[in-house]
Automatic annotation (TrEMBL):
<dbReference type="InterPro" id="IPR036291">
    <property type="entry name" value="NAD(P)-bd_dom_sf"/>
</dbReference>
<comment type="similarity">
    <text>Belongs to the NAD(P)-dependent epimerase/dehydratase family. SDR39U1 subfamily.</text>
</comment>
<protein>
    <recommendedName>
        <fullName>TIGR01777 family protein</fullName>
    </recommendedName>
</protein>
<dbReference type="InterPro" id="IPR013549">
    <property type="entry name" value="DUF1731"/>
</dbReference>
<dbReference type="InterPro" id="IPR010099">
    <property type="entry name" value="SDR39U1"/>
</dbReference>
<dbReference type="Pfam" id="PF08338">
    <property type="entry name" value="DUF1731"/>
</dbReference>
<dbReference type="Pfam" id="PF01370">
    <property type="entry name" value="Epimerase"/>
</dbReference>
<feature type="domain" description="NAD-dependent epimerase/dehydratase">
    <location>
        <begin position="3"/>
        <end position="210"/>
    </location>
</feature>
<feature type="domain" description="DUF1731">
    <location>
        <begin position="246"/>
        <end position="293"/>
    </location>
</feature>
<dbReference type="InterPro" id="IPR001509">
    <property type="entry name" value="Epimerase_deHydtase"/>
</dbReference>
Length: 296
């Protein structure tokens, strides 16, 4: 297949693109920097000029300003929003206009869609939650819908935090954990879904090829854990004790709104669509998954 991919330089894209290439697919990268190899687009200016006769079999949308880095100022929140919603709409419209539109469009979203669900197990039929990220995810998924209007199969990937040595959550936590400061956050009872990068890319390949998948799909391992369980697993692997707990108020004082949306929120999402269609996770348990991605 010839696959058009945005955000290919990011954490997920830089693992996914070579994986798909190794299986014989051709990746055409959408690039925001004219000096890089690929098809140029400028989501901020609304520029995406694909030749009308471009032959693309599938499209994958992975773009978006980083959510986990930098304090959430008003400007940062606007960047988080527009770099997802406006760019997704531009991408979806761009492929919908082609003479021969691609068959499938996989578009990133997040499990932030569900907001705070407490202990409730969340699958793809669960309703949207409340909060900044839940609102963004709703709009983000709606923006991808522009491709559906011409019959493209659209899958909204509700991605959970990705475990990788090269980016995302782990490199931010590792220095603290190694220093013996791997702390439980808030009550530690809040759930978090997660997925090992290898399972994520294999699942995305599976989703590309499974025609029955459309609409929302939870991209997370089948065993979400509480923050305490996650912290203990990481500390055990690093041979460090889990001694401390940071109270919620302190976390909020340091991180602001991000504390509630990223670290104190409880999201117990499970990948019902993937598991019921026979996808097998290689790393379904947190401690083994962490050992695998950290090579420990
Ligand atoms: N990693 C996770 O744990 C996780 C969890 C849930 C959801 N997601 C979502 O999945 C997508 C890919 O995740 P990722 O971890 O690979 O993200 P990432 O490493 O931050 O990469 C995202 C890519 O988006 C492009 N980008 C950056 N700023 C942009 C902007 N202002 N406008 C348009 N494009 C911009 C960049 O690619 P170019 O420079 O090549 O354009 C960048 O490499 C993101 O939308 C993310 O929110 C990720």
């Amino acid at each position: 297949m010839k696959i058009l991919m945005s955000g290919a330089s990011g954490l997920i894209g830089s693992a996914l693109a070579p994986y798909l290439e190794a299986w014989g697919h051709r990746i055409l990268r959408l690039v925001r920097d004219k000096s890089k190899k690929g098809e140029f687009w400028d989501p901020r200016q609304g520029i995406l000029d694909l030749p009308a006769d471009a032959e693309i079999d599938a499209a994958i949308n992975l773009s978006g300003d980083s959510i986990g880095s930098g304090r959430w100022t008003k400007q940062k929140k606007e960047r988080i929003r527009s770099s997802r919603i406006e760019s997704t709409f531009l991408f979806a419209k761009g492929i919908a206009r082609l003479k021969r539109p691609p068959k499938v469009f996989l578009s990133a979203s997040g499990i932030g869609f569900y907001g705070d669900g407490g202990d409730v197990v969340l699958n793809e039929t669960s309703p949207a939650g409340r909060g900044f990220l839940a609102g963004i995810s709703r709009e983000w998924e709606a923006a991808a819908g522009a491709a559906q209007e011409v019959g493209i199969r659209v899958v909204n990937l509700r991605i959970s935090p990705v475990l990788s040595r090269y980016g995302g959550l782990l490199p931010r936590l590792l220095p603290l954990s190694k220093a013996g400061l791997g702390v439980v956050l808030g009550s530690g009872k809040q759930y978090m879904s997660w997925i090992a990068i290898d399972d994520l890319v294999a699942a995305m390949d599976f989703i590309l090829g499974t025609e029955s998948f459309s609409g929302p799909l939870n991209l997370c391992a089948p065993n979400p854990v509480t923050n305490r369980e996650f912290t203990k697993a990481l500390n055990t692997i690093l041979k460090r004790p889990t001694l401390f707990r940071v109270p919620s108020f302190l976390l909020r004082a340091v991180l602001g709104e991000m504390a509630d949306e990223e670290f104190l929120v409880s999201t117990r999402a499970v990948p019902d669509k993937l598991t019921s269609s026979g996808f097998e996770f290689k790393h379904p348990e947190i401690e083994e998954a962490l050992r695998h991605v950290l090579r420990r």
